[in-house]
Design goal:
four-stranded antiparallel sheet, alpha+beta, 33% strand, 4 helices, elongated, 166 residues, four-stranded mixed sheet
Length: 166
């Protein structure tokens, strides 16, 4: 059997709840800055500091996920502001219970409140979320991610009995 190596980079769609702190801090920064123009210089400096804070909060809403499939091991990393990388999870797909789309009937039958859920998907309307139910360090977990057709075909070729398309 030949080795498999597939990388995929996906951009997470920012929701309004992700951007709400940025908007709130920006608004407070503007109000404090303009109030400082009329009353005190110290308020201007505070407004500028809040503006810088809003900028860094905005940069942290730029999130990408990198899915890296090496043979049967799936690594998921989070890339923040195209500059910082954080490793999130490593899954051994051969130990996975099943891999199926989010709307699958098979997934609904395995509804268990004790399963830890991790969402590494793009939250896009056109994305087909795939769920991997796996055992990681003696903890059952449900992982949501958005693989492309190339990655799904490779996973299917490795373990056709665990991959379902409905």
């Amino acid at each position: 059997m030949e080795d498999v190596f597939i990388e995929q980079l996906v951009q997470k769609k920012s929701s309004s709840s992700d951007r709400m702190p940025v908007y709130g801090v920006s608004l407070v920064a503007a109000v404090v800055f303009f109030a400082g123009l009329f009353f005190q210089l110290l308020l201007c400096i505070l407004g500028i500091a809040l503006g810088v804070l809003a900028y860094f909060l905005y940069k942290n809403t730029d999130i990408e996920y990198e899915y890296c499939l090496v043979n049967s091991q799936l690594d998921i990393d989070k890339i923040i502001a195209k500059s910082r990388r954080k490793h999130l999870v490593t899954l051994e797909l051969k130990d996975a219970e099943m891999i199926a789309p989010k709307e699958s009937d098979r997934i609904r039958h395995l509804a268990n409140p004790n399963v830890k859920e991790q969402d590494f998907s793009t939250h896009s309307e056109r994305a087909t979320f795939v769920i991997v139910i796996a055992d990681e360090k003696q903890q059952m977990m449900r992982v949501y991610f958005d693989p492309d057709n190339n990655m799904m075909n490779a996973i299917y070729k490795m373990m056709p009995s665990k991959v379902f398309d409905s």
